[in-house]
């Protein structure tokens, strides 16, 4: 998705760190409770230091919703996160993204036009009344709205299993009680696959839907027989973690612990000691015994922060060639200083606004998630 960010003036791009820090601090003080700055876990430390709250995307959106006195929500994250915050917050609150180019490659892999084309293609082959669309939180407002319109739900990496069991049924032999016989899961194929396998389904129950191919690259029979139609999407960071990284770590640290995110490929997940969401990873490191050596399969800024916060443990990235999330990295102190100083002057820049109809149906999908979990 193309987004155009206004180039910053030299007074921001050429400013020294101490100058930027002073200006950000002064702007925050001037705005007071009218401002609420959110920092996603994957942000660099220079941004996290200014966050009034830090967490994953959904938790931060809820916290913004619970802060009605804040007129301005500055979301230091990526575009879909700011959209979710706008969907959940009140009309008098404005959500701002410091850099409009801070997108998410995974979220952009599920384009609304392609999703609607897939739904139309499936309509001629399967009973759509028995297909439940499920979207990961890491998706655009338009995708969340699509899911809401078509009786589906949003999920997070924490509650994906609960949502999929709601869609397909529980762990009984017949798996009765679900809303349908199939799920169309997007945009991350790995979270869908890892969760489905944990529920007891097999790889034969799953097919990958490639939106760039006719009928997703599948035969009609494959479409009919698959319980999971997994959108061909992935996180560019988590897909980097490979089995050979686990093997190399274990060779050097036989007693070491491997903790990875479920957005990692299945062949990596099966070799890990623990698998879970960002919050799960944070708790896992806190609970690990002192002296532990832990390899973490998630974004490197969080991994480095956890290493700093747990000096009694050795915490390393599972991927030795560490690669930060490049879109998250677009949020920096010059952009943060710019949006805050503009607010002090009474000017709102980079507002993120979801149209009323899209927001209404996206809220329906989010509310279903809350009712399920």
Q: Would you mind describing this structure in some detail?
A:
- With 373 residues, the protein is α/β, with parallel strands linked by helices.
- The chain has three domains: 10-104 and 327-353, Rossmann fold, CATH 3.40.50.10800; 107-235, Rossmann fold (3-Layer(aba) Sandwich), CATH 3.40.50.10800; 238-317, 3-Layer(aba) Sandwich (Rossmann fold), CATH 3.40.50.10800.
- The chain contains 17 helices and 13 strands.
- It has helices at 10-13, 17-31, 45-48, 57-65, 79-88, 105-108, 112-123, 141-149, 160-168, 189-198, 220-225, 243-252, 266-269, 278-287, 300-309, 333-344, 356-372, and strands spanning 35-40, 53-55, 72-76, 94-96, 131-136, 153-155, 182-186, 206-209, 228-231, 257-260, 274-275, 293-297, 314-317.
- It has a five-stranded parallel sheet with strand order 6-5-7-9-8, sandwiched between helices. The chain has a four-stranded parallel sheet with strand order 2-1-3-4, with helices on both faces.
- Helix 2 (17-31) packs parallel to helix 16 (333-344), helix 4 packs parallel to helix 5 and helix 8 (141-149) packs across helix 17.
- The chain is globular and about 60 Å long.
- The two termini are 31 Å apart.
- The model has no long low-confidence stretch (mean pLDDT 95).
């Amino acid at each position: 998705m193309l987004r155009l960010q206004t180039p910053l003036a030299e007074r921001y791009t050429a400013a020294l760190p101490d100058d930027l820090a002073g200006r950000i601090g002064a702007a925050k003080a001037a705005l007071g409770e009218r401002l609420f700055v959110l920092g996603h876990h994957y942000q660099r430390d220079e941004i996290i230091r200014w966050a009034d709250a830090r967490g994953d995307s959904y938790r931060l959106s809820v916290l913004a919703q619970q802060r009605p006195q804040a007129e301005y929500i500055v979301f230091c994250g990526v575009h879909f996160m700011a959209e979710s915050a706008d969907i959940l917050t009140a009309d008098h609150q404005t959500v701002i993204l410091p850099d409009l180019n801070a997108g998410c490659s995974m979220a952009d892999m599920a384009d609304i036009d392609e999703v609607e084309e897939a739904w139309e293609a499936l309509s001629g082959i399967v009973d759509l009344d028995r297909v439940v669309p499920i979207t990961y939180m890491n998706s655009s407002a338009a995708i969340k709205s699509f899911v809401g319109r078509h009786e589906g739900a949003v999920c997070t990496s924490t509650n994906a299993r609960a949502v999929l069991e709601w869609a397909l049924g529980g762990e009984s032999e017949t798996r009765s009680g679900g809303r349908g016989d199939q799920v169309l899961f997007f945009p991350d194929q790995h979270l869908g696959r890892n969760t489905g396998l944990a529920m007891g389904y097999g790889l034969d129950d799953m097919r990958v839907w490639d939106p760039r191919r006719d009928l997703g690259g599948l035969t009609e029979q494959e479409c009919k027989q698959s319980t999971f139609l997994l959108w061909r999407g992935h996180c560019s960071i988590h897909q980097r973690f490979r089995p050979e990284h686990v093997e190399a770590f274990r060779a050097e640290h036989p007693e070491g612990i491997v903790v990875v995110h479920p957005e990692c490929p299945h062949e990596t997940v099966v070799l890990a000691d623990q698998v879970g969401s960002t919050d799960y990873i944070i708790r896992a490191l806190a609970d690990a015994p002192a002296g532990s050596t832990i390899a973490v399969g998630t974004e490197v800024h969080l991994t480095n922060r956890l290493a700093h916060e747990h000096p009694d443990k050795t915490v390393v990235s599972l991927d030795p060639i560490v690669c930060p999330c490049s879109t998250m990295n677009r949020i920096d102190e010059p952009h943060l200083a710019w949006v805050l100083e503009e607010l002090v002057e009474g000017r709102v820049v980079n507002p993120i606004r979801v149209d009323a109809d899209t927001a209404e149906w996206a809220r329906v999908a989010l509310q279903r998630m809350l009712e399920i979990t």
